[in-house]
Write a structure and sequence with these properties.
Distance between the termini: 14 Å
CATH topology of the largest domain: Beta-lactamase
CATH class of the largest domain: Alpha Beta
CATH architecture of the largest domain: 3-Layer(aba) Sandwich
Number of strands: 25
Structural class: alpha+beta
Strand order of the largest sheet: 5-4-3-17-16-15-14
CATH superfamily of the largest domain: DD-peptidase/beta-lactamase superfamily
Length: about 500
């Protein structure tokens, strides 16, 4: 088959199957409390979970903090958002990132020099590329992940530095080339904080994060301090089974923090306000912006990772998130910077469906309060090539197309994608947001080398929202029922050599 370029002019008529605007419920305590009461109470009963807590902040204030079920089933002690301590597991990593950014703002740390400068032992390396704090905090330093010897007994708590020296993982990826989740790497960043600050990591965080925010019921110390031990929730695999011992992880910066829902609320508010909480500040504006900016992506159109936060899912809105999982305690934290909203959710039991429960509650929340502005216009479309009727297209033939839309087309930040018949893979793509005389035309190949298509094929047209800028509101696609909106003009198919 010839490799000569085909110019394919397409006619797309996007007819919305579900036209109209999806209205959002008002995010108020009067609405969200009964909404979540029904969902969380049902999940506790259905999944055999002892207790949970949730905290929601909005516009710099606490909107809702509430406990559900029991912190201690046998003693019938209810969960309190202000009093009950939970192990927040890997959400601890966001405190490591905050501590590093504090010291970087003070000029005591450099995110992009090799961390060997700050350590008192040599790292085992398989590659010449530097292991930097930026890479440690984005899980791109290349370390293998493992959990050997990672649980301490209360009477034999490991010291952070010696543990990291003697439990080094293999470096299996070239630094900066891919994400390889690493508890060791984040704990190493915590140890750098300890070394540079000249005090234990737990002490540094207590003095520079907890105290300014008034987080009086939080700690990285192990075992738990006597004043906090009575507040700790019991941990259960199932609420109908006996509790399990509290977990103390040896790599404490990566997953060893204990806190309450009320304390985490204060941390969320500070991050949503670029480091400011009331009259206190834990990060400069610049440090907060750097920490919240995506640092690495595996694919240009995929979600990325910021410093100690992942990019989450929120109906087209930019979300910063991190989850946490111990053997029996499971949590998630979500921030929607553009809406000034944060949510923290934690369970003290694994239950019967721990892998999906938090995500399903988050989806219900964003679908109710932050739905997509409009359903994406979808409908049938035809792609025709200027070839003789008996000829067909194959994957070896590049397809170039132009999507022509009326003046009332979507604004900048909206793109249209034509999806082919082979598993929904994209076969063509163009930006419909730019003016028609500036709109790019891009080449794309058919899904596989064995694909043969007739002269005209029927596909689905889909309007896809893309985020124009961090924290910015997404534009709405036009209502296809309005005059000229979303209607493509017909063009003549031509063939070019």
């Amino acid at each position: 088959m010839s490799s000569r370029l085909l110019r394919v002019w397409t006619t797309l008529v996007a007819v919305s199957i579900l036209p109209g605007t999806v209205s959002a419920a008002a995010l108020t305590r009067a609405d969200v409390e009964p909404f979540l009461d029904g969902i969380i109470s049902q999940r506790l009963d259905r999944d055999d979970i002892a207790g949970a807590a949730i905290a929601i902040v909005k516009d710099g204030d606490v909107l809702l903090e509430k406990g559900y079920g029991y912190a201690d089933v046998a003693r019938k002690i209810p969960v309190s958002p202000e009093e009950t301590l939970f192990g927040i597991a890997s959400i601890s990593k966001t405190f490591v990132g905050t501590a590093v950014m504090q010291l970087a703002s003070d000029g005591k740390l450099d995110l992009d020099v090799d961390v060997g400068r700050y350590l008192d032992f040599q790292l085992k390396r398989a590659f010449q590329e530097p292991i930097t704090l930026r890479r440690l905090l984005t899980h791109t330093a290349g370390f293998e992940e493992g959990g050997k010897d990672d649980l301490d007994r209360p009477e034999a708590i490991s010291r952070l530095g010696p543990f990291l020296r003697t439990h080094q993982p293999a470096q299996i990826f070239q630094p900066g080339t891919r994400i390889g989740y690493s508890n060791y790497g984040v704990s190493l960043a915590g140890y750098v904080v300890e070394r540079v600050a000249g005090e234990p990591f737990a002490t540094y965080v207590a003095r520079n994060i907890y105290q300014p925010l008034g987080m009086h019921h939080s700690t990285f110390e192990a075992p738990l301090p006597p004043a906090l031990t009575p507040r700790a929730s019991q941990e259960y695999r199932l609420a109908s089974q006996p509790p399990r011992p509290i977990e103390y992880v040896a790599r404490r910066p990566a997953g060893g923090m204990y806190s309450t829902a009320d304390d985490v609320s204060k941390f969320m508010i500070a991050h949503l306000q670029d480091g400011r909480y009331g009259s206190q500040r834990i990060l400069t504006d610049e440090a907060a912006r750097t920490m919240h900016t995506i640092q690495w992506r595996g694919h240009s159109e995929g979600p990325g990772i910021a410093i100690s936060f992942y990019q989450g899912v929120g109906n087209g809105r930019f979300v910063l998130t991190h989850g946490g999982d111990l053997a029996c305690q499971h949590s998630d934290l979500w921030l929607i910077p553009s809406e000034h909203v944060g949510v923290f959710l934690i369970f003290n039991s694994t239950g019967k469906d721990w892998t999906r429960i938090r995500g399903s509650i988050w989806k219900a929340f964003v679908d109710r309060y932050f739905p997509l502005a409009d359903p994406a216009p979808r409908g049938p479309a035809i792609i025709c090539a200027a070839r003789k009727p008996h000829e067909s297209l194959t994957a070896r033939d590049p397809i170039v197309f132009e999507l022509s839309v009326a003046p009332s087309a979507p604004r900048r930040g909206t793109s249209h994608r034509v999806r082919g018949p082979n598993g929904g893979l994209p076969i063509a793509h163009a930006d419909a947001g730019a003016p028609s005389d500036q709109r790019p035309t891009r080449a794309a190949r058919l899904p596989s080398a064995s694909t043969r298509l007739p002269r005209c094929i029927r596909v689905q047209a889909e309007a896809r929202m893309s985020r124009p800028g961090q924290g910015a509101a997404l534009p709405r696609p036009p209502d296809p029922r309005s005059s000229g909106a979303g209607v493509a003009r017909r063009r003549q198919c031509t063939r070019r050599e």
